[in-house]
Write a structure and sequence with these properties.
Shape: globular
Number of strands: 9
Order of helices and strands: EHEHEHEHEHEEHEHEHH
Strand content: 5-15%
Helix content: 40-55%
Number of helices: 9
Structural class: alpha/beta
CATH architecture of the largest domain: 3-Layer(aba) Sandwich
Strand order of the largest sheet: 3-2-1-4-5-6-9
CATH superfamily of the largest domain: NAD(P)-binding Rossmann-like Domain
Distance between the termini: 55 Å
Largest sheet: 7 strands, parallel
Length: about 280
């Protein structure tokens, strides 16, 4: 298989949340494909250091920029810098997001607003502004990190599910309005992925085993699983996918029926019932 099978070599890829656990994995996988990178996060020093590391290791061109994605002026300045340095943007990946836990009856308005601003408004501003550049080019691909919690509520997590449902719908709207101009917009919906932020959950083996039981593939996801999905949707190999959601959850969403208890366990119950049926036929 060709090293450039995905067709990402020399593409200019902009990634928000670039120094986070999921974002950094995505950046590294793009770099392996010889894509040029714009790493965006709040900490400019760490962004630049990571960009230099990827440049040295993979022989690509990478720059790191500080940008608050909820700040219109900063987003516009970022787009201008990308245009100045690279002249174009082929791929935008939105990963920057927050999750804050609180029973909804106690949720302060400022926490609701912060989650909406970062998880939804930030995605909108980045997509709109880089979308304008893509409209000029008449080409571009966007991938937005949503979650399976956009389909079913992540209880006691404040505005998280609501904002991620908004991300998924917004992605579809970009596809519907801009598809005619050569722009694709898709979302990735992860579930149960080990990241630096979720690591503390899995230090409790009872929690990890309980979660693993809820997944058809019987394992917790890794950031590389999400990066692989993002690269596919960002690549030319997914050229006829537009406005869709790629669920990357190990089969979590198909497990509801299997989790309903039966005497002795569902599998053993089925085995015993089948044996009884065969015996009755003799």
């Amino acid at each position: 298989m060709s090293q450039n099978w995905l067709g990402l070599e020399n593409d200019v890829c902009v990634i928000t949340g670039a120094i986070g656990g999921m974002g950094s994995e995505i950046c590294r996988e793009f770099a392996k494909q010889k894509a040029n990178l714009v790493l965006i996060d709040l900490d400019e020093v760490k962004c630049q250091q990571f960009a230099q590391e990827l440049t040295a290791e993979y022989g690509i061109k990478a720059i790191g920029l500080a940008c608050n994605t909820t700040n219109e002026a900063q987003v516009d300045a970022t787009v201008a810098k990308v245009k100045e340095v690279f002249g174009r943007c082929d791929v935008l990946v939105n990963t920057a997001a927050i999750l804050r836990f609180c029973p909804i009856e106690d949720l302060p308005l400022d926490e609701w607003s912060a989650t909406v601003n970062i998880n939804l408004t930030g995605y909108f501003l980045m997509s709109q502004r880089f979308g304008r550049l893509m409209l000029e080019q008449k080409s571009g691909r966007m991938v937005h990190i949503s979650t399976v919690a956009s389909h079913t509520p992540e209880t006691y997590s404040g505005a998280y599910s609501a904002t991620k449902a908004g991300v998924s719908m917004m992605s579809k709207q970009f596809a519907a309005e801009w598809g005619q101009f050569g722009i694709r917009s898709n979302a990735v919906c992860p579930c149960f992925v080990k990241t630096p932020l979720s690591k503390k959950f899995y230090e409790d083996k009872e929690v990890e085993n309980g979660r693993t039981r809820m997944i058809a593939s019987r394992r917790i996801g890794e950031t590389i699983d999400i990066a692989n999905a993002v690269l596919y949707l960002a690549s030319k190999r997914s050229d006829y996918s537009n406005g869709t959601e790629l669920v990357v959850d190990g089969g979590y969403e198909v497990m509801l029926g299997d989790l309903v208890p039966r005497p002795g366990g569902r599998r053993q119950f089925a085995i015993e019932q089948h044996a009884a049926s065969l015996s009755a036929k003799k």
